[in-house]
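pinging the channel bc i need a second pair of eyes. not urgent but kinda urgent?? the chain im working w is below, pasted from the shared doc
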Amino acid sequence: MKKKIAVFTTGWCGEILSQFLTGMQKSLSDKQVDIFLFMGYPTYIDTAAIKRGEMNIYSLPDLHDFDGTVIFGSGLNFPDKIENIIGRSKDAGIPVILQGTHVDGICYVGSDNYQATLDMTEHLQKEHNVRNIIFFAGTQDSLDSELRLKAVKDYLEKSGHTEDLKDVFYTKWENAAVTRKINEMCANGETMPDAFICANDGLAMECVISLNRHGYDVPGDVLVTGFDFIDDSQIFSPSIASVDQCFTEMGAAAGRQWLELCGGAEPGHSELVPCKFIPGESCNCFEFRNSDNIRRRVGREAFSKRAMTTYFNRKLNLIDSTILSCLTYQDFKRNLHRLLTDNHDYEGDSFHVLLEPNFGLSIYDPNIRLNTEGYSRNMEVLYSTEDGVAYEKELFASRDLVPGYDPNGVNHLYIFLPLHEADEAYGYAVFRDCMEKVENHFLHTYQSRMGLVFDKFRHALSLDQVNKRLLDLMRRDPLTNVSNRMAYEDKEKFLQSQINSTTETAFAIAMFDVNNLKLINDTYGHDAGDGYLIRACHLICKIFKHSPVYRVGGDEFIAVLVGGDYEEQEHLRQELNHHMSPYTKELPLPPDYVSIACGIASYDPKTDICIQDVVKRADAEMYQIKTAMKGETPR
């Protein structure tokens, strides 16, 4: 049976994360080990609710079912979450390995950021005579960022140039923060430094772009350096002078540490992987590496990537249109399952979408709340295939994580992504063996679009349910509980549309007027009058039970006779008359007294142009019958 390692991080550092995981997999290739990657996409500027929703995925696994935990700190820089994962791992009695951040007593693997940054700072001063520096840092609680800053300070102090570090600006790893800072400097007329040292390549590339917008040339006017040596920074123009942290080697080191811990080694061991500072065009070293060759290679790959992106976007649009066209939750489940069954080239033959069991119920009842911490014990299977074999059951125990999981066979990488709106958990999705999707952020796009369209569908259907309830209240007579005049006017429009489009329609209009309502109101009071109307309405509905009945006035009702009621209208009229009390104005009236005048007219396609032609005939007949019931002479 295979061992299982749980890896926790965020997906924003996709390229270096994929390198790290590749190193782990290679170091464990001769062992039976599956890697389970639990990954969200929280940012520091997100609301607290969104952060909770993204990082809720970390609570999904029961670590008692795992054989080790790895925390990729270069992506996960939320100390409270790291502390929680370490605590759960200790409770489960499994080894923990930290990357990129230190916790006493926990095994650590990292890169020698310090020495590489010393080399970078020395290069800037000795090769390019840099004397004024601004450092764009990440966060103050980021071990990597603070270590890089310390190396810059230490080198400048040792070389007697402490004053050369003019400013340290914390970006919270937000590229836009770099733009805001440079815009502010330019607006205030501040002089640019000789160099910006940035805590990662993303900040460095944003720095170059912002400087260019204000007319500064890099490296002609200002030098810029980064960190991480990602592909984007290598093909960027100018190519970014950076530090290769050797994440593949770091992942391999993490794999070795886990094996040693499983073998009984004491926790707390640290291993630093050497880094390499690599000058580039952004520090005016145009001949140090041939960035043009890399750009040509990326150019050759651009077509296939563009085609893949186009297909991917079409797939997302198809998911959107499929879900948003659904009118019920059952439609939603059935149609999305059919779509993914027929077309899962992007997702692959091992892909799963599991929903909170209350997701559907919450659509129809706003009082039903979704989980904001953790996931339900059993999840609803929306779509699930493992190695092309569909999981047929409707519910699945969330502790088991992957429907159809095979604890034997070849090693795999499973990637778990949260589906949510703010902090409300909708469920989770599982991809398998798709390292390239981790690297290119396609998984983030897929996850966020899926969560968004689920949310749109849920709210649209919930709003539709509310609207239907309100419309039903607006279209229903509160006394008799039959439809009211507003509903009848809509029915008239529908009947008119049938008259306009076909001569095959067959219906009749039955007009009812309840006799002696005023007499009962005046004699016995309005409560008695209301009871009388309810009895009269009940009789109409009982006789014309296959036709919609409407209360259109105080004592007036209309029924639209169709189908069997239309064919049997004369028989039904006689049955109505049979159940009625004889017309009288003599008091007291019997307690079950009901007297109704009824006129019926059928639609005649040869003479009737509009619905009112039928209504007028039914009303005229009803008036004649009412007059006759009263014993009066018609006018």
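so The chain has three domains: 3-94+303-463, 111-247+269-289, 485-630. and The domain at 485-630 is CATH 3.30.70.270 (Alpha-Beta Plaits). — does that match what u expected or am i reading it wrong
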